[in-house]
Structures are given as C-alpha cells and as structure tokens.
Amino acid sequence: MSIAILAAHTEDNKNKYFAAYNLSLALNATLYNVNERLIKEDNLIIIGMRGLEHYKKIRNTIFKTKAVIFSDTNFCRYYKWCNEYVSEHNIFVYAMPDLHDFLFCKYVPAYQTITIPDIIIKKPDDRIVICHSPGTIKGKFNYKGTNQINEVVEKLSKKYVIEYKLLQGFSHEKCIKEKSTAHIFIDQIIKNNPFVDQNRFGNQIIYKGGLGKSGIEGMLLNCCVITSMDHPNTEPYFPPPPIIMTDYRDFELDLERAVCDINYRNKLVKKQKIWADKYCGPEFVSMNVTRHINGTANTP
C-alpha cells in the first residue's frame, strides 16, 4: 500500500514538529508540496485548503482512495464549496471536531499530529503563569477573543498573584519555551462572545470555537487548557479532550477556579497530558486518518 500526502509548506519538511512531516513518517508515506504535479502513489491524503485547491489541478490522476484533512478554520470560509467538491469527487473527509456545524458530508473527527521539542518543563511556585497566543488574521487581533481574555485576566490579577504572557510575534521555539512555564493556557474565547467578528467566515453559521494546535501543545506541556467550544462529537473514534470547555459568559468563573484550585488544576493537567500524548501522537493519528483506506470509516 503506497500513500502520498499532499500539503502546503513541505519545504519545511526537515522540521520534525511539522504535522504533515510526522504523519508521513508514521505512515511511511511520500510527502509532496502543493506545487508538485506528478504523484505516483495509489492512495492520496490531502491536508488543508491549499492541498484541496491544488488537487483540482491534478485530479486526472487515478487514486484508489482519496481523503482530505481539514484542521483549520479557513475551511469555514469555503465550507459550501468544500462540501460539494469532496462529495462530487468521492473524497473522504477527516476534520477537527469544532468544524462539525460546517460539515454536511461524511467525515471522521481528527485532531492534528502534534509533537514538541524535548524541553525541561518547570512551573514557578510563587505565582500562577497564564499564557495566550492571539494570532492575527489580516490585521484582526481579536479573532480569538483576545481583548476579552485580557480583561478577565487583568481583573483576576487584582485578586491573585498572576503573571500573564501574551505570545505574539514569537518564533515557534520561543512560544514553546514560554508556554512550558505556564500553569494555564487559554486557547480562544469565541462562543457567545458578542465582540468577536464572525464576518471573516463569510457565511451565516456562527463558529463556536474549539481546541487548536496551540491548545494541544499546551496540554503536552502540562498546562491546564481552557477554551470555548461545544462538547465535541468524537465518539466512537476517541474520547473528547478533558479540557475546560467554557464560553464567554462562564469564562471568568471557569478561569478563576483553575487559578485558585490547585488540586482541580493538577488533576486536569494529568488527564490532558495523557489524552494528548495518545490521541495526538503519530501512531493514533495515522491509524485514524487511514480508515478510508482499510474500509472502517463511518459517519459519527
């Protein structure tokens, strides 16, 4: 069985923390850049929007099986086109569970393959370190609810000894190092947040948030991860992540409990690390995202 993986940014394939690269190693697959046109393998796994758009240019190539992995919210902006295209061309879909509302085709829930560098994880004892990585989209700073996160953390800082690290403009290596010192990592606060601009998706469906790559890295670095999202539809493939699932209205109370209740926080950290090691590791992810090849893929 020969497998090809088509992904963007494979010029970075020497970076062993790159998800597509890890997946290619786990599957003994050939990794192709989206600029390449000749793919020789029998089975094709496409990663992301750019990969799917490139597939349109080479679709005359005959594959035994075809699948696409949607792991970014950019999918939300093109969800109608994507759903119709994968259905028309018999492409199986694997998608992050937070994209559930945008999918009307068959799919299997899947998180990314995440690995992090070997690093000494040390948390301060004299204060609670909280991290958040805002990111930006076309100059929009608040698409993760960063402004509201900042306000809540500032309010709690008046009651507790807190150090707040906003991870913006850092290299990946620097982000990992800073995140390793955090007791709590806040991914995004979008659900029921009236201050987050949903227009970037260009449709009428409201995105409720989810667990992204940065949050999974936080789990692997022994942070207590909190994010806004609905309870994900992942059974029977794997259990939902044991993170703090909140929304804009409950965020302050949920964060305060994580700050002041060390036993609660430590129990969650332990569960989250075990979950992320198993269900975001290359062995499980590679097994999960080849269900269409061995014929065990079903709808959730």
Radius of gyration from CA coordinates = 19 Å
Low-confidence stretches: none
Instruction: Using the alpha-carbon principal axes, give the shape.
Output: globular
Elements, N to C (H/E)? EHEEHEHHEEEHEHEHEEHHHH
Q: Give me the count of strands.
A: 11
Q: Into which percent range does the helicity of residues fall?
A: 25-40%
CATH architecture designation of the largest domain: 3-Layer(aba) Sandwich
**Distance from first to last alpha carbon:** 26 Å
Look up the CATH topology of the largest domain: Rossmann fold
- Major sheet details: 6 strands, parallel
Number of domain modules: 2
Question: What is the CATH superfamily classification of the largest domain?
Answer: Glycogen Phosphorylase B
What's the CATH class of the largest domain, please?
Alpha Beta
Strand order of the largest sheet: 2-1-3-4-5-6
What would you note in describing this structure?
- 33% of the residues lie in helices and 16% in strands.
- It has 300 residues and is α/β, with parallel strands linked by helices.
- The protein has helices spanning 19-27, 48-58, 74-77, 79-88, 146-156, 172-179, 213-220, 251-260, 262-279, 282-288, 291-294, and strands spanning 3-7, 30-33, 43-47, 65-70, 92-95, 107-109, 128-132, 162-166, 184-186, 224-228, 244-246.
- The protein starts with a strand and ends in a 6-residue tail after the last helix.
- The longest helix has 18 residues, at 262-279.
- Helix 1 packs across helix 10 (282-288) and helix 7 packs across helix 9 (262-279).
- Strands 2-1-3-4-5-6 form a 6-stranded parallel β-sheet, with helices on both faces. A 5-stranded parallel β-sheet has the order 8-7-9-10-11, sandwiched between helices.
- It is built from 11 helices and 11 strands.
- The protein has 2 domains: 3-115 and 281-294, Rossmann fold, CATH 3.40.50.2020; 128-279, Rossmann fold (3-Layer(aba) Sandwich), CATH 3.40.50.
